Amino acid sequence: MTDRPVAAGVRDTPESWPVHDVEQVWDGGSPFAVRRDTVSAPDHPEVQFRRLVLEHPGAVVILAVDEQERALVLQQYRHPVGRRFVELPAGLLDVVDEDPLEAARRELQEEAQLLADHWEHLLTAHPSPGLSSERMEIFLATGLHEAPHRGEDFELHHEEADMTVSWEPVETLVDGFLAGRLTNGPLGMAVMAYTLRHRAR
Fold it and tell me: Disulfide: which of 6, 8, 21, 24 matches 38 by Cβ 3.0-4.6 Å?
């Protein structure tokens, strides 16, 4: 491992290593696909290795907090892990060139039938950069009120049709995440970021 100094303004930096071959492993149609890249370090093109990449369009996550410091959470079954998670409203960025904030507004209305007067970008995260290209944009929504009824209401299918909704104190969610009772990554990142910013004000 190469030792590199950590500067006060430490940050991620764009970098691209040479790709010598790309094999399409699976294409399920938009928005997901899996490919296998043959890669090398820039200074050692003779040493090549393979990396699987899950092509992901990105996602938005919404932490909706009411005046009582409660967050709207969903309980939903997630088959890959075999667990019903407590999580936040979220959705894919699968509309071409859609602004993430507009996607967040849409998802909050579709999944929670809520509108928000105030929006704040909490953080950006790559949840699994060793495997997936997914980039998450996490927003805080406050000043909440019910969305008007729409004739074309969003229809839920499969696991989403079994989803339940509740309001939980943000503090309870932070405690649950730190204690390991709640393990959904976006939920944990959102409530921790919110708590740190709230206490700093």
Answer: 21
